[in-house]
Structure formats: C-alpha cells, structure tokens
C-alpha cells in the first residue's frame, strides 16, 4: 500500500470510529459540517466516466440495425446515474424543496399560469448559475457532457440507418444487376484479366444509373482524380523538397523582417467576411509584391530555375513557396 492509499485508509478509519468528535453517518451541526472535508466515498472517478463513454461510443458506432439490449441497458444506467447526480446537485443548491413544491402545484393545475412559469424559470436560472461556477459539480457536468455526446451518436446512427433504407428502396432489381457487373469488372481488374467492350459499356451504364439514384437521394458522387505514376528520380525529388523548405523559411523571414504579420492577419479577418472582396485582393497583392521583391535577389531563385529546366516526367512541381 503506497503513501496516498495508506493516508486515505487511515482517514476513512478515523471517520468510521469517530475520532475528532465526528462519526460517519451521524448528524452534524450545520456550522461544523461546513468546515469538514466532504466524504470521497461517492465521488465520481473521471477515469471511469471516460472509459464508460468510450465503451458506449464504440458500442453505438459498431452496432447495426435496432439498438441491442446491452446498449439499452448502458443508456438506462447512464440516465439513472445522471438523475442521481441531478438530485444531489438540487439538494446541495437548496433547490429540492422548491422543486417538490412546484411539482405539487403543477399536479393540481394541468394548465400552468404565468406565475408557475416564472417560478420554474427562476429555479432553472439559479440551477444554471450554480452549475456554471468553476470547479463546482464536476461529476454532474461530466455526465451531462456524456449524455450530449451519446445523443449525437444515436442521432448519427439513426440518420445512417434511415439513409440506408431509402437507398435500398430506390435500388431496383435492374440496378442491383448492374452493380453485379461492377463487381465482376472489379474482380477481373484485380486478377489482371482484360475487360471486353460489352462489360466496359455495362460498367459505364451502371455508374450512370447509380449516380442518378444517389442524386435522387440528395447525395452526390465525389470523383477521385487518377494519379499517374511519377518517374521523378529520388535525388531530384529530394532537391525539390529541400528547395521548397528553404523558400518557405525565407518567406517567413521576410514576413518577420518587413512586419507583414499584421497585414496578413487583417487579410484573414477580411477574407472571413467576404472571400473575394476588393480589400482582400488588394492586401494579397501587396503582401505578394513585398515577398517577391525580397526574394528577387535570393540564390534560391536561380536554383529553382535550374530545377525547372531539368526534364521531369510525371506530375511533380515546385510550389514556389506557397504560403
């Protein structure tokens, strides 16, 4: 048992046997209780809460179809823990009696009047004010955050299942047959077998029909650009990367020496308001002009020109110190 565990063990022992005139579980005068260290028996452990949240996230994201009993059980336990923390917070804030009184009044009058609504609003505002204090009710805050995250995950899964069902309904038997052609073509490509003209035509038709289905479901297809294999020598590639790095360093140096930082910040602020405004274009042109003038006499410019003159196959370029 290490020092911390030993001290905690002795503290709990003395609390239980009543050393110092106090015994755990017995009534204590309010003025004395204020000066005592609160019991740590039911203090929430944030490591346990984090582990519980990660486990619940994994269960929700990996599950398919309707929620399983295990997930429902975990969600129910989360709600129960949250209710307990809320009750403790209401008692600690001195709001529990006012809440119980409000419940009785609401039970007597199904249609609450303005007075009851004002009472409820006052209780809510006081609760939020107490909860917002730094370092206060950390266990409750953590559980509220956990519930919000779980709610968003459940909403994501619900939307995913809804979208999947809509797509399955829209996919007719003809399109499913077209998708089989896509599958066959994919398998042939993996094996290295050539595709005949009919299969190529069927694949193109299948792609078009599938795009139409996705568009009808308010989705769009994101195309991927084909990347050709680069034949750039390793030495040239390393030299290009080195020059790019040096150019970037020189640009940062120019920005610092010429005091362009505030102008770049101003451009970012204006761009956030309107990307293509005249002021943004003007600031951008001024910054580029200062940097270009500063780099005009740099030996890096000649190195860059030499690299451009070398015959290069493929899609590799020097970025000119893009910033």
Estimate the mean pLDDT confidence.
Answer: 71
In the residues, how many domains can be counted?
3
Number of strands: 0
Structural class: mainly alpha
What is the count of helical runs? 13
Order of helices and strands: HHHHHHHHHHHHH
Question: In whole angstroms, how far apart are the ends?
Answer: 57 Å
Q: Are there runs of 5+ residues with pLDDT below 50, and where? A: 40-44, 224-229, 311-323
- The helix content, as a percent range, equals over 70%
What about the largest sheet? Answer: none
Query: Strand percentage, roughly?
Result: under 5%
Shape: extended
Supply Rg. 34 Å
Protein described:
The protein is mainly α and 323 residues long. The chain has three domains: 46-163, no CATH class; 171-217; 234-309, no CATH class. It is 72% helix and 0% strand. The protein is built from 13 helices and no strands. The protein has helices at 3-17, 30-33, 46-62, 69-93, 96-108, 114-131, 138-170, 173-191, 197-216, 234-258, 261-273, 278-295, 299-309. 3% of the residues are buried. Residues 24-33 have a biased composition (Basic and acidic residues). Residues 150-293 form a coiled coil.
Features:
72% helix; 13 helices; disordered C terminus; single chain; 3 domains; mainly alpha; 323 residues
